[in-house]
Design goal:
This protein is 46% helix and 19% strand. With 270 residues, the chain is of the alpha/beta class. The protein has a seven-stranded parallel beta sheet, with helices on both faces.
């Protein structure tokens, strides 16, 4: 039996765990990556209970050592289970005060949301190109289409992911390797719990994971969940700028710091 090899970063987060739960079954091998050892072990146990082969990597992909460990783990995993799918899912966000983010957080958001995504893609891409098959799925955000004043660096990095995914898709045209850009809206996860404000069309993590994987299986280049929010954003973006900005003010929020933010830094209220 051919075993499908899948790599998932950010596997210990709310959406990552839901993706693992949906993917884990006999005939699937998962390399799941995260920073929290206990949470990673729990997700691995869930996947094994569902019948999947599981390898784990505890690493910080913003560090050189973590990226080296990821490259080595991917190479080892790919030799046993040729990688068919990468889900570059890891992501973080921070708030700001009058346009100023807490010290060190801008660099952290860029490193996790953008730089690590690109480097993880480059780790799996050569073998996929050699086999002329596979799919790379990158988690962007609808905030990349409608940048949010409460999420400055987050919006910028997610727009960067969208640009990178589009450029890579064009580069890989005809190679047999596909690229999917995932654009979630509000998904019911611990990260979204820190978003104190309107959360239109909030989806459960399981429902979002199901929609994402359905789009990947169908080979879609862009997968927005929910699709309705994407079209509402497109409509807003088509309005005069002053009116679009006025509408956006109705969705202002306060972003609470996450537990991984540097100790000693003040919470960055919006």
């Amino acid at each position: 039996m051919t075993v499908r090899g899948i790599v998932i970063t950010g596997a210990t987060g709310g959406l990552g765990r839901a993706l693992v739960a949906r993917l884990a079954r006999p005939g699937v091998a998962l390399l799941i990556c995260g920073r929290n050892a206990d949470q990673l072990a729990a997700v691995a146990m869930l996947a094994r209970q569902n019948g999947a082969d599981v390898a784990t990597l505890q690493a910080d992909l913003t560090k050189d050592a973590g990226l080296a460990a990821f490259d080595a783990a991917v190479a080892t995993f790919d030799r046993q289970f040729p990688i068919d799918l990468l889900l570059a899912n890891a992501g973080v966000k921070t708030g700001n005060r009058a346009g100023i983010e807490a010290k060190g957080q801008t660099e952290r958001v860029i490193a996790v949301n953008l730089t690590a995504v690109m480097l993880c893609v480059q780790a799996v891409l050569p073998a996929m190109r050699q086999r002329q098959r596979g799919r790379i799925a990158m988690i962007g955000s609808l905030a990349g289409l409608s940048p949010q004043p409460d999420l400055l660096s987050y919006s910028a990095t997610k727009e960067g992911v969208a640009a990178y995914a589009t450029a890579l898709r064009r580069e890989l045209r005809g190679s047999g390797v596909g690229v999917s850009l995932i654009l979630p809206g509000f998904v019911d996860t611990p990260m979204t719990d820190r978003h104190l404000g309107p959360r239109p069309l909030l989806m459960s993590a399981d429902r979002a994971a199901a929609a994402i994987l359905r789009g990947i299986d169908r080979g879609h280049n862009v997968i927005a969940v929910p699709r309705l929010l994407r079209w509402l954003i497109a409509l807003s973006n088509a309005l005069p700028v002053a009116l679009s900005d006025q509408i956006d003010q109705r969705f202002r929020a306060k972003i609470m710091p996450d537990p991984d933010e540097a100790k000693g830094q003040p919470p960055p209220p919006s």
